[in-house]
Amino acid sequence: MMAVSGEQALAGERMFRMPSCLLKLTRVVLSHKPWALFILIFVFVSFAYHKLYWGIWADPKGRGPPYSLSAEISCAHSVPSSLNIAAGPSLSAQNVFFVETAEQTTPSYLFSCSVESAARTHPTSRVVVLMKGLAKGNASLPKHWAFSLLSCFPNVEIQPLDLTELFSGTPLAQWYLQPQRHQEPHFLHVLSDACRIVLMWKFGGIYLDTDFIVLKNLQNLTNALGIQGDEELNGAFLSFKPKHEFMELCMQDFVQNYNGWVWGHQGPELLTRVFKKWCSLRTIKSMSCKGVRALAPEVVYPIPWQDWKKLFEAVSALELHSLLKNTYAVHVWNKLSHETKLEIPSQALLAQLYSQFCPATYTKMKQDSEALSRRAV
């Protein structure tokens, strides 16, 4: 049952009370020919429509947000007042992009942590999450705890991914429209590789895979990408100014040397090929060449992919600090690690990263873990 205040009741009474002028008009009409009744009906309907229209739209606050947060997420808890993001994003700051090329709209804990950690470390940037599974033109997000949580951050924008529009005006436009490409075994990963280089070329900013946990602001790492080890670059992190020639060369190589049947050919191998040509190198090393930086592994790939299990091993706070002192973000290698159970709470390296850098997501993880434990008893 919903209580109605005296002020609301009075407003409703005023809305539907027929004014004296209409009462007089009614008496006059009823004393004349029946056709005049049409005039009375027209005037009354116009009056009612006018009152109803302005009663709903006169106060924009009465409309409410297009998507209401679920009751389980408290924005006051998720975004503490000490986090200085109330002013919203700055026009001078670079955008931070995340992309989901699959149709799924049920973000994982790691997905939520990636976006939350980026939002916290980049309070003046727009953190843009592009998802293929979202319906274009639909103002509402699917009901899921992660969308509710991330909507608490004023600098996070979750939008549909329109691939035809994204690739338009680039060498990849015709590639995407070829239906046989969609049958290739690694197509979703290749599509993600395509999106990131086009985003960097068209708009510039920072691109991150959704299995990163961001520790520090990345804005000073401009025109840069990271070495993942084995003398190979990785595109899970990219940071470039718009229309950069290096990204243009990446788009050209994507089409000219295309092979969607070989894992990594359109991703790490492409970036490595282009960087070697760019710098006239035989092997990759940490360096700056013609305005593009290849960052040392510890900057964004401190845990090599071969050692991904270390993420689930216990470490002391001192060891954690020592390990990450030169690190801006940690790649979690979700393709390898996603089936491994993470104990929450624990001293595992990954659990400590969740706790420190995406505390709202970590709180949700703890709540879910405790609920499972109660059900198991």
UniProtKB/TrEMBL annotation:
Keyword set for this entry?
Glycosyltransferase, Golgi apparatus, Lipid biosynthesis, Lipid metabolism, Membrane, Transferase, Transmembrane, Transmembrane helix
Which regions span the lipid bilayer?
35-54
- Location, primary (coarse class): Golgi
Give the GO terms filed under biological process for this record. Answer: glycosphingolipid biosynthetic process
**Top-level EC class, please?**
transferase
**Which family does the record claim for this protein?**
Belongs to the glycosyltransferase 32 family.
Naturally occurring in which organism (per UniProt): Cyanoderma ruficeps
Q: Return the Pfam families for the record.
A: Gb3_synth, Gly_transf_sug
Please report the name of this protein according to its UniProt entry: Lactosylceramide 4-alpha-galactosyltransferase
| Protein localization | Golgi apparatus membrane
**EC number(s) stated in the UniProt entry for this protein:** 2.4.1.228
Q: In which pathway does it act?
A: Glycolipid biosynthesis
- Chemical reaction(s) catalysed: a beta-D-Gal-(1->4)-beta-D-Glc-(1<->1)-Cer(d18:1(4E)) + UDP-alpha-D-galactose = a globoside Gb3Cer (d18:1(4E)) + UDP + H(+); a beta-D-Gal-(1<->1')-ceramide + UDP-alpha-D-galactose = alpha-D-Gal-(1->4)-beta-D-Gal-(1<->1')-Cer + UDP + H(+)
- The coiled-coil regions, if any, are none
Among PANTHER family, the record links this protein to:
LACTOSYLCERAMIDE 4-ALPHA-GALACTOSYLTRANSFERASE, LACTOSYLCERAMIDE 4-ALPHA-GALACTOSYLTRANSFERASE ALPHA- 1,4-GALACTOSYLTRANSFERASE
Per the record, membrane topology reads: Single-pass type II membrane protein
Gene3D superfamilies reported in the protein's UniProt record: 3.90.550.20
Ranges for domain Alpha 1,4-glycosyltransferase come to: 240-364
Which molecular function GO terms apply here?
A: lactosylceramide 4-alpha-galactosyltransferase activity
Which Gene Ontology CC terms are recorded?
Golgi membrane
Q: Which InterPro entries match?
A: A1-4-GlycosylTfrase_dom, Glycosyltransf_32, GlycoTrfase_DXD_sugar-bd_CS, Nucleotide-diphossugar_trans
